[in-house]
Design brief:
A hairpin with a 2-residue loop joins strand 4 and strand 5 (about 160). A five-stranded mixed sheet has the order 2-3-1-6-7. A two-stranded antiparallel ribbon has the order 4-5. About 55% of the residues lie in helices and about 20% in strands. The protein is α+β, with helices and mostly antiparallel strands.
């Protein structure tokens, strides 16, 4: 950076003041490191949900398209929690927030080098590619079922045994993807069909 070049010139121009120049160079390097750290922290804050630590919609729109273009196969999921409002109403927002954090950890724990997103409220999303199809996960239905089962596991929060499930909409593809907004819209439509169908675990909207 320019300020480091300036410090280097000071050191070269003042051989009799090497200690002062070295101290100035160290100070400027520390300043650069602090600025870079602040920039990284700001970038993280802008692109992540402050409650769960998951990616937010901004990061989804930023990195999602390139993830899909690089993938041989992909699926985009939209998840809406069932039974979350009664938990929030009965136990309070602090417990509700911990439920959301637990759901976020479970969702991201099912993915391998893929993207888990909190869209807002109790709605989540994910971009999954073939990298998450490992072990016994041979196809999207197997992986989505695993995600559904993981989210439905009971959780203990504040001495309370709680459970929520998720209605999941899925759209899949294996060629040049439509826009990120269109894929989310398709998965969202499928999710609302799942909601309307007595909270069935998921419905696939296949774009092919």
């Amino acid at each position: 950076m320019d300020i480091l070049s300036h410090a280097d010139r000071l050191a070269a121009a003042a051989p009799d003041g090497e200690r002062a120049a070295d101290a100035e160079l160290a100070r400027l390097r520390a300043q650069v490191a602090r600025l870079e750290s602040e920039r990284a922290a700001l970038w993280w804050a802008i692109h992540h949900d402050d409650l769960t630590g998951l990616a937010n919609r901004r990061l989804l729109n930023t990195v999602g398209p390139s993830m899909l273009r690089k993938a041989t196969r992909y699926a985009v999921l939209v998840l809406d929690l069932n039974g979350f409002k009664p938990v929030n109403d009965r136990y309070g927002h602090a417990v509700g927030d911990e439920v959301l954090c637990t759901v976020g950890r479970r969702l991201s724990g099912c993915l391998v080098d893929d993207l888990a997103v909190r869209l807002g409220g109790d709605e989540f999303a994910a971009i999954i590619t073939e990298s998450s199809l490992v072990g016994t996960r041979h196809d999207w239905p197997t992986l989505v079922s695993e995600i559904s089962e993981a989210l439905a596991q009971p959780m203990s929060i504040g001495g309370n045994r709680l459970a929520v499930t998720a209605s999941i909409g899925v759209t899949t593809g294996s060629r040049e993807p439509p826009t990120m907004a269109e894929l989310i819209r398709r998965a969202d439509v499928a999710m609302y069909h799942a909601k309307a169908n007595r909270y069935c675990s998921y419905i696939t909207f296949d774009q092919r």
